[in-house]
C-alpha cells in the first residue's frame, strides 16, 4: 500500500491540473501536429484559449479541455503546424508589382517581348502615369541591352519612356526617352566616380546603353511616377492576403523605411523616410494586419554610430502598433552576382573583368556600427551575396563579440550565394543566423548562364551552401526575398531538399532534409525576427498561429511537397484564410 500512494497522488495532481485549466476556445484534434519544439514528437491535437496555445497533446487530453462553447475542428489526420515565417521579404512591393505588368521572370524573344509590351499597354496595365514600366524582368535580358535599344528607342517608342525593372530589384533597363527624363547622359556618366560609373553600362564615349545596376538603377527608379496612397494601401492589403494564403503568418520586411522613390542601396535615411510603415499602421488600425511584421530600417552601409539616432526616432513614432515590431536595421554589404551586374563582392575576381565586385561596407567602420546597433538593442541584418561581403560582415560581428563575448541579439546575414568554407563555423561561433533563399539553389539560367562562366569551378560548387552551414552548426532560417522570387515557402522547402532545376542539380551535397527546413521556416525564423518567445512553435503561452495542410508533408514525394496547399490559416486563434469553396 505504501508504494501505491504516490501513484494515486500523482494521478490526482494531474487531474486537478487539467481541471484547473480554462476551457479552450478552440480545439483541433485527430491530426498530425508538428510543434517545431526541439526533440518533441508529433502530437495529435492542440487547444487554444484567448488566442494562445493552451496545450498540445493527445486527442483525449485536448478533448478534455473543451466545453459546450468550444469550437471543435476534426483535422481528419491532416498535418497541423505553426504558421510559416519569412525572414527576408518586401511584400508590399511584391504585391504592388503583381498589380501591374509583370514578366514573372519569363524570358521571351525580343520581337515577342515587344508585342507583349504593346498588348499590356493596350490592356491598361503597363503604365505608371506616362511611363511604361514592366516588372519582374529576367536578368538574361541585360546582355542584350543594345538589342533592346534597337527596338524600344525607335518608331512608336522614340518619345515614349520605357522601363524594364529587373526581378532582382538591383538592376534594370531604360530607353533613351527615360534616360533623358532621368538626366542620365554621357556627360553625367563621365563625371561620376569609377564606382558609380560602373553601375551604368556605357560605350567608349560614355553614352549609356540603358542597363543599370545598384545606385545607377536608383537614378531611374526614383524618377518613376509614384502610385497613389490608395493604391499602396491596396498593395499592403494584398501582401497580407497572399502571405496568409501560403501559410505565412510573420515576416521580416527588409526595407520598411524605403519608399517608392528612395535610393535604396546606399540610402541616407532621415526621420521623414517612413516607407511602408504608414501602410502597416493603417492596416493595423483597420484590424487587417493579421500577421506579424518585423520591420527593418535600412541604414547606409557606411553609417557612423551617431547616424542611427534618426532611425530610432522613426521606430519610436510607430511603437505600440499591434503586430508591428522593430528588431533592428538592414545593411547592404554588396549587390548581385549575375552577369553583367557582378556587383557582389567576391574573393576571387570575376573571370571576365578581373574585378571583385563592390563591397559597400567599410571593414574598418562596420564593427563599430554593429556595436552601436547592439547598444540600441537592435539586430543587424546584412545583405551579402558574395563570399568577400560575407567574410567582412562576419568580421564586423567578430569585432563586437570581442568587446562583448555574449551576443545580446542574434544578427543575421541573408542571401549567402557564396561563403568561404573557412567561414562556415563562424556563424555558430558568432551567433549569426543564416537567412537563406533556397528557392534559388537550382541549376537554371541564373546559376548556369549568368554566373558559372564567370567564377571558378570550386566557387560554383559552393553556391548556397545550406547543408555545409548546417553541418557547421549554423542556424538556418527560411526567406523568399519576394518579389525577387515567390513568397510560397513550400516551393523553397522542396527546392532545398532536391536542389534540382531545369539544367540539372546544383551541388546535391548541399541538399537539406525536410525537418531542418520546417524548422527553418518556424522556430529558427522566429529567432531571426526576435519573436521566438511569442511565435515559431506550438508551445503553451505562444500565440496560436496555425496552418492546416492538404497533404502529409513528412511522407509525400518531393514533387508533391512543392505542390503543398494550405487549407486553413489561423492568426491568434482566429481563422484568417481558407480557400474559396
Any descriptors?
22 helices, 6-stranded mixed β-sheet, TIM Barrel, 8-stranded parallel β-sheet, 3 domains, 581 residues, Diaminopimelate Epimerase, Chain A, domain 1, alpha/beta, Urease, subunit C, domain 1
3D architecture notes:
This protein is α/β, with parallel strands linked by helices and 581 residues long. It folds into 3 domains: 17-83 and 537-581, Urease, subunit C, domain 1 (Roll), CATH 2.30.40; 130-221, Diaminopimelate Epimerase, Chain A, domain 1, CATH 3.10.310; 229-535, Alpha-Beta Barrel (TIM Barrel). It is 33% helix and 20% strand. The protein has 22 helices and 25 strands.
Give the helix/strand layout.
Layout: H1 5-20, E1 26-29, E2 32-33, E3 45-49, E4 52-57, H2 59-63, E5 71-74, E6 79-82, E7 84-89, H3 91-98, H4 110-122, E8 127-128, E9 131-137, H5 145-152, E10 162-166, E11 171-174, H6 176-181, H7 186-191, H8 194-198, E12 200-202, E13 208-213, H9 214-221, H10 229-245, E14 248-253, H11 277-285, E15 292-298, H12 309-317, E16 324-332, H13 363-375, E17 379-384, H14 387-403, E18 412-415, H15 424-430, E19 433-436, H16 445-449, H17 457-461, H18 466-471, E20 476-478, H19 489-498, E21 500-501, E22 504-505, H20 514-520, H21 523-528, E23 546-549, H22 558-562, E24 566-571, E25 574-577
Parallel strand pairs: 1-5, 2-6, 7-14, 9-10, 14-15, 15-16, 16-17, 17-18, 18-19, 19-20
Antiparallel strand pairs: 1-3, 3-4, 6-23, 8-9, 10-11, 11-13, 12-13, 21-22, 23-24, 24-25
Helix pairs in contact: 3-10, 10-11, 13-14
Amino acid at each position: 500500500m505504501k508504494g501505491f500512494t504516490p501513484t494515486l497522488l500523482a494521478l490526482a495532481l494531474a487531474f486537478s491540473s487539467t481541471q484547473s485549466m480554462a476551457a479552450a476556445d478552440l480545439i483541433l484534434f485527430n491530426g498530425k501536429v508538428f510543434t517545431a519544439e526541439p526533440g518533441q514528437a508529433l502530437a495529435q491535437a492542440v487547444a487554444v484559449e484567448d488566442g494562445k496555445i493552451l496545450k498540445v497533446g493527445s486527442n483525449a487530453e485536448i478533448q478534455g479541455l473543451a466545453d459546450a462553447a468550444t469550437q471543435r475542428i476534426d483535422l481528419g489526420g491532416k498535418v497541423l503546424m505553426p504558421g510559416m515565417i519569412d525572414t527576408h521579404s518586401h511584400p508590399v512591393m511584391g504585391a504592388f508589382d503583381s498589380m501591374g505588368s509583370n514578366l514573372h521572370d519569363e524570358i521571351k524573344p525580343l520581337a515577342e517581348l515587344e508585342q507583349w509590351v504593346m498588348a499590356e499597354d493596350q490592356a491598361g496595365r503597363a503604365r505608371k502615369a506616362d511611363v511604361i514600366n514592366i516588372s519582374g524582368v529576367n536578368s538574361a535580358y541585360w546582355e542584350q541591352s543594345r538589342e533592346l535599344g534597337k527596338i524600344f528607342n525607335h518608331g512608336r517608342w522614340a518619345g515614349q519612356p520605357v522601363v524594364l525593372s529587373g526581378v532582382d530589384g538591383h538592376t534594370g533597363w531604360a530607353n533613351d526617352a527615360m534616360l533623358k527624363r532621368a538626366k542620365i547622359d554621357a556627360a553625367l556618366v563621365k563625371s561620376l566616380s569609377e564606382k558609380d560609373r560602373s553601375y551604368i553600362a556605357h560605350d567608349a564615349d560614355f553614352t549609356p546603353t540603358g542597363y543599370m545596376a545598384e545606385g545607377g538603377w536608383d537614378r531611374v527608379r526614383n524618377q518613376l511616377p509614384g502610385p497613389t496612397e490608395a493604391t499602396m494601401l491596396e498593395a499592403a492589403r494584398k501582401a497580407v492576403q497572399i502571405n496568409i494564403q501560403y501559410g505565412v503568418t510573420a515576416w521580416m520586411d527588409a526595407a520598411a523605411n524605403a519608399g517608392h522613390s528612395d535610393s535604396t542601396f546606399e540610402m541616407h535615411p532621415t526621420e521623414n523616410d517612413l516607407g511602408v510603415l504608414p501602410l502597416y499602421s493603417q492596416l493595423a488600425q483597420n484590424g487587417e494586419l493579421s500577421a506579424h511584421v518585423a520591420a527593418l530600417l535600412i541604414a547606409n552601409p557606411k553609417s557612423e554610430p551617431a547616424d542611427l539616432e534618426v532611425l530610432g526616432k522613426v521606430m519610436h513614432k510607430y511603437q505600440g502598433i499591434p503586430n508591428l515590431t522593430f528588431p533592428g536595421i538592414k545593411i547592404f554589404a554588396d549587390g548581385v552576382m549575375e552577369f553583367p551586374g557582378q556587383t557582389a563582392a567576391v574573393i576571387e575576381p570575376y573571370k571576365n573583368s578581373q574585378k571583385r565586385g563592390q563591397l559597400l561596407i567599410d571593414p574598418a567602420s562596420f564593427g563599430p556600427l554593429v556595436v552601436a546597433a547592439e547598444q540600441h538593442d537592435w539586430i543587424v541584418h546584412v545583405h551579402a551575396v558574395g563570399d568577400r561581403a560575407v567574410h567582412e560582415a562576419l568580421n564586423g560581428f567578430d569585432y563586437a563579440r570581442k568587446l562583448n563575448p555574449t551576443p545580446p541579439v542574434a544578427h543575421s546575414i541573408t542571401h549567402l550565394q557564396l561563403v568561404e568554407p573557412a567561414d562556415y563555423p563562424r556563424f555558430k561561433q558568432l551567433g549569426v543566423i543564416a537567412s537563406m533563399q533556397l528557392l534559388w539553389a537550382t541549376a537554371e539560367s541564373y546559376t548556369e548562364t549568368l554566373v558559372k562562366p564567370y567564377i571558378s569551378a570550386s566557387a560554383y560548387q559552393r553556391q548556397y551552401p545550406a547543408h555545409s552551414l548546417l553541418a557547421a552548426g549554423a542556424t538556418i532560417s527560411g526567406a523568399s526575398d519576394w518579389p525577387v522570387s515567390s513568397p510560397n515557402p513550400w516551393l523553397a522547402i522542396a527546392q532545398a531538399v532536391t536542389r534540382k532545376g531545369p539544367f540539372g542539380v546544383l551541388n546535391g551535397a548541399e541538399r537539406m532534409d525536410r525537418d531542418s527546413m520546417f524548422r527553418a521556416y518556424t522556430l529558427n525564423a522566429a529567432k531571426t525576427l526576435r519573436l521566438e518567445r511569442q511565435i515559431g512553435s506550438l508551445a503553451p503561452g505562444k500565440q496560436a498561429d496555425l496552418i492546416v495542410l492538404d497533404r502529409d508533408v513528412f511522407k509525400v514525394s518531393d514533387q508533391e511537397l512543392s505542390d503543398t496547399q494550405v487549407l486553413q490559416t489561423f492568426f491568434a486563434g482566429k481563422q484568417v484564410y481558407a480557400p474559396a469553396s
